[in-house]
Amino acid sequence: MASCFFCPNCWKEMDERTIRCPHCGYDISEYASLPYEEKLIYTLRHPIRENEMMAIQLLGELQSEEAVPVFASILETEKDFYVIREIILSLDKIGNTESKNLILNLKTHKSRLVRRVAAQMLSD
Q1: Predicted TM-score (pTM) of this structure
Q2: What's the domain range around 3?
Q3: Rounded CA gap, 66 and 115, in Å?
Q4: Are 2 and 53 part of one and the same domain?
Q5: For 70-101, how does the pLDDT look when each residue is reduced to its tens digit (9 = 90+)?
Q6: From residue 51, how far is each of 19, 45, 101 by CA, in Å?
Q7: CB 45 within 8 A of CB 56
Q8: What does the alpha-carbon distance between residue 19 and residue 121 come to, in Å, rounded to a whole number?
């Protein structure tokens, strides 16, 4: 089974031996030297949904305040309830004022399910 490799900057598929992305020119060695938390933040744009979901969960476990603005940006356009729910759970774990405000704003989301999860996190 062949593995799929993606550029961590533009997320286009590339050969695993590539040093510089042929699509965007990103130097892959730069990614290797990034701190773990920053790599997870990059992964929030990963084309494979499971990888994105795992990054959301791990950033919550790390209580990553750096991830909060990225989560806010994702929430502006995301329609998938499961992704939104994972972000809410992670925001709750982060627990700073900005993350709590994002959850508070989701209490008026158009999805009843999202509103319910946001309200539940705020009542705990």
Answers
A1: 0.89
A2: 1-33
A3: 24
A4: no
A5: 999 999 999 999 999 999 999 999 999 999 99
A6: 22, 9, 26
A7: no
A8: 43
